[in-house]
Amino acid sequence: MTRDQTTSTLARRLGGLHADKVALITGGSVGIGASLGRMLALSGARVILAARTPGPLEQLRDRIVAELAALGYADADARVVIEPNCDVGNPADMERLAANALARFGHVDYLINNAGVVGTEDMVIDMPIDGWRQCLQANLNSNYALIRALAPQMKRRGAGHVINVSSYFGGEKYVAIAYPNRADYAVSKAGQRAMVEALARFLGPEIQINAVAPGPVDGDRLRGTAERPSMFQRRARVILENRRLGEVYAALYAATRAEGLPISDLLPAILANDVRAVMADERQPGALRALAERIWASSDPAGSSRTHFLSERLARKLLRRLTHGGHLPAQVTDGAMTDFSATLPAGRASVAHEAWRSPPEPFFTQAEYEREGSKVGERILGMLHLRRLPTNDDVALATIYHLADPYVSGETFHTTGGLRFERAVTEGELFGKASPQRLAGLRGATVYLVGEHMGEHLARLTGAFLDEHGAGRVVLISESDATPTRLGATFPAHLASGRLVSVVASEELEAALEQARATYGPADAIISTPFRPLPTVRLAPGPDGDWSEVLSAEGFVTLVEQQITHHVRVAQRAATMERARLVLVTPPTTHRSSEEEFALANFVKTTLHSFTATLGAECERLCHYTAVNQVDLTRRARDEEPRTPAEEHEELERFVEAVLLTSAPLPSPEESRYRARIYRGNAITV
Ligand SMILES: NC(=O)c1ccc[n+]([C@@H]2O[C@H](COP(=O)([O-])OP(=O)(O)OC[C@H]3O[C@@H](n4cnc5c(N)ncnc54)[C@H](OP(=O)(O)O)[C@@H]3O)[C@@H](O)[C@H]2O)c1
Fold this sequence. Notes:
Layout: H1 7-14, E1 22-26, H2 31-42, E2 46-50, H3 54-70, H4 76-79, E3 80-83, H5 91-105, E4 110-113, H6 129-157, E5 160-165, E6 175-177, H7 183-203, E7 207-212, H8 220-223, H9 231-259, H10 263-271, H11 275-280, H12 286-298, H13 312-324, H14 337-343, H15 366-383, H16 392-404, E8 412-413, E9 423-425, E10 428-429, H17 436-440, E11 446-450, H18 455-468, E12 473-478, H19 482-490, H20 492-497, E13 500-504, H21 509-520, E14 525-528, H22 553-574, E15 581-585, H23 595-620, E16 627-632, H24 645-663, H25 673-678, E17 683-685
This protein binds NADP nicotinamide-adenine-dinucleotide phosphate.
NADP nicotinamide-adenine-dinucleotide phosphate is lined by residues 26-33, 51-53, 86-89, 114-117, 138, 165, 167, 214, 216-217, 219-222, 392.
């Protein structure tokens, strides 16, 4: 097949593969979605194409209608319907889209959740949590909302097929793939795949549900358009910016350690934003002068990134990091940069210019972007076994053949073939304990325990840290005051001595973490457990066909918020703490749990691992070297869950061992690059 999919070649090849089916495709105006819409139409389906912008949808409709008319369809016009102004980030639009589709054609056979946003393109430590939520809403929650709206009629009619268009970066069965600078996107894509694995048995036997996971596709998203820079260029920008921010951030930390001065005292030299002045000023700390010299020697003279430390955007990120890290007094506002100087404590007298100096444009030059962009392109090609990128049409063609398979369900189809990339196994078992030497490192440690409903686990951890391993203090960060009261009653002596303290977070998790840091100092270890249990709901109706008890679209949003975003909020603060060990805990299941709880717990465990693996990789690039790992309290097989009180006790002990294994001090990269790498980003099942 040539890459030019002409109407007649395609129509001949596709025959009536999807004759008389009705297909709803989100993001159906350009890219993969447009190719899917066109090919489905040419293979006999009636299509509903949804997107936000009307123009491209209208053009595509006109093109497909003309092609269908040329092929002899008398009703060509009625076979292609467009739904403009439809934003997958907006739940009301999803409801309207499903209702319009059903009103128009009476039913939908194929739901193709294709629309996807790129996300914030920030490191987790810098990511605005609202940006995180928007990405998950658009790429993941919308998928469930449309499934929830359209599955009832598919079940009733006895057939239907859902395809979630995920990504190679959503991982594969049992493995997560780290995608630094794109945690929100990667998690949304992992969630799309995990959703398919979780729902297949409930939507079946009537409905098939699968994912496709393209790797990079040779199309506009990759190459860019007049309105949108190419993916290479966008990645290049993120890499260049994060590299510079990381260098400045690390130099400030190195200087504060060497000089024994607070970062707020060193900051004015950076915000004065004059590389040559710092190079020339012998009173400046060595780490800052070395940074200035490196920047001067290695940056493109045509850009202001040679003469200035930071662009305004980067300076804002730096200040936000430092505020979250407890180095600056108040949350930085979004005001003008000059306001920031005013919020700083008085700087060192030796610094001549304390006011912010905006660098002239460009900060990084086009040549720098192009150089970095071409490295990104080479790296991407190097990842592909065939060293060849598929086009949108290639991916769409593979997908519509996949869609015609009547047996496959719960699977992910990799339309770009194999890629080489770093992966982390999601289903690893706890095997072995932390060595006594590592456990001894917990002596005197400050441990934050974030949690509410997993009372027994929290109590057992409190005992292990305080009584068995001599931690200095456990700071319980809970949703309400019920848990501190209960734990206090279990450990009255620790409560009285101040070794067990608490902060009630309510909705304000970030504020509670900040309060904990301000009052008790940064954590050496943070154990993040969810505040709420999994919902006990159905994922499919009973024999009576009643959907009222089935997890609602809003219920799904809440699940994602409580079981995934919750950990992200904790992780953002943990990532600013020097050498902290962060342990994320997924919801527990027992042999008494329902099939639905198992499915949801596995959905959470798989989706969250994408975050854990990504943050693990990002933290290697941050000077704090926070280690992040995940402890999973669920398995796929109910048979493997403990059945007797003794087995349940054993599992609880294994949980504690897994937490100790991941929260005892870990080797730093200087001690052992090898061990430091393998001790992060893992998911350990107990
Ligand atoms: N292209 C790749 O290399 C690649 C690789 C892996 C995975 N994917 C996945 O494949 C899917 C399609 O990607 P693509 O590259 O073909 O997309 P694209 O070229 O960026 O096109 C996106 C389509 O989605 C629509 N869209 C964007 N944001 C939307 C929103 N908030 N609500 C509704 N519609 C929206 C766009 O139209 P409007 O802007 O007018 O709404 C357009 O129709 C995505 O889920 C993406 O994550 C792509």
